[in-house]
From TrEMBL:
GO biological process: anaerobic respiration
SUPFAM superfamilies linked: Multiheme cytochromes (SSF48695)
Keywords: Cell membrane, Electron transport, Heme, Iron, Membrane, Metal-binding, Transmembrane, Transmembrane helix, Transport
GO cellular component term, pick one: plasma membrane
Official protein name in the record: Cytochrome c-type protein NapC
The organism's taxonomic lineage, starting at the top: Bacteria, Pseudomonadati, Pseudomonadota, Alphaproteobacteria, Rhodospirillales
Function: Mediates electron flow from quinones to the NapAB complex.
Organism: Paramagnetospirillum marisnigri
Amino acid sequence: MATESLFSKLSKIKILGASIFGAAVIFVGGIVFWGGFNTAMEATNTLGFCINCHEMKDNVYQEYIKTIHYTNRSGVRATCSDCHVPKDWVHKFIRKIQASGEVFHWLMGTVDTPEKFDGKRYQLAKRVWETMKSTDSRECRNCHAFDQMNPDMQKQRARKQHTNAQAEGGTCIDCHKGIAHKPVHHLLEQEEEQKAKEAEAKKAAAAKPAPAPATAAASAPAAAGGAALPPVTGKAVDWSKAAETKTVLFYPGQTAIEWVLTGTDHGGTRAFKKGDRCFECHSNETAEMGAKMVSGAKAEATPIPGKRAAIPLSVKAAYDADNLYMRFEFPAGAHAPVPFAPGGKMDADNEVKLAMIIDGGKVDMAARSGCWTSCHSDARDMPTAPAASALGTARGIDTKLGYVTKYVPESRTQFDTVKRDNWDKVKPQAELDAMLANGTFLDLTRWKSQGVSEQGYILAERILKAGNDVSYSGKKEGDKWVVTMVRRLKATQPGEVNLVPGQSYAVGFAVHDDFSTGRFHHVSVDLKLGLDAEGEIKAVKL
């Protein structure tokens, strides 16, 4: 033919070795395949698809619909794929390939009953946590990027922890495990603690025993059997010249130190273990916390109707060459009869008691938690308290009272935060004596409104008795209580902390108001007392 047909000419054109028509077919087919493939992938990213099998619908979905990711004030809902499937195509494709293994386990019925699912839950959760950690919580940050947050709009504890995370390279999943499904991250904590204990045991077994060092009575240079000093007396103090510190004592319920150290109980466990003080996260919200517990909404098995949630406390401090002076002021409250106490009063002889602990720097968690380090789950009226009949004659503590009192963890041969039964695991007396001599205790003083001043310490148990090194006085003035204290700076007997000008000390305060006893008190978070030194409470020199 003289002229070739258009079709013949076009068919001779080659694109990468294929005719133009073949290339067109490949191109169109590619579009169809790509579109179909992406449509199929997106179809598997819906909530409906995820809960199509009963394993998901009957287990994790039922947990998820009770969380803030399902219903919240913004109206934005994060579904399964938002948290578990990457947005970008490459990582999404990889995740879909990984999901084929999950389809296999669905076919095999690996988790097709609630019992089977719970049996695998920790293993499944660890896999997700590890993935999120490796991706810097990529899916979380689609909604929760640090640079999108306004710290001024966050609560004190959230602001503190987000600041820490940015400074230390932390990521969302470090702190936010268990927020969408049944929490099991306490098992991870237990696993890590067990590994640490095993490593420590191996290290101790490999080390050769060193000779025991001679103990020096750093906190109490005077011999216990020496001549008693006369009762402490002080000078008149012009309190108008002392700085005032305002804090809020709150009702703590049954939140023992073991509770603080357990992630499923306390969201700040990780931060606390890393060294953060309770004060840094909670100092501005103690009244709110107290309200939750006094009402029985959290960590309180026996709420007292009408008991106040918090008590504002004003503190002033001063010192001279010999003594520490302190002044406390707090409002009196209305009487709320206790249903389980005779006459509605636990301690009918004392409407009010005020106590103060001082840490000399040797009790591990005191500087971060204040008195919490001595408050335990197995103490009186606490969740794992032993029955009086079970106390017997436990070695190292006086059980005549019929209950376990405060103690510091260092006084025990074990400190188990799971079973929480450490009360009778007391170290040998020789070790306790050495701890008392080197300052591993909490200095404790207390005032009773019937006019009694007591001094003592907390080590294997709480020791309180009348003494000459502290003197309290107080009275109700109108609708408030005013209590003053004078205490020797220099320790004169075991169980007292030497107070040195220029130094700071961790302190904690407790008020038993309305004739209360035991754990039914109001307490402060950890505070620092500085004698012309750093601290929330600054003692001025007279």
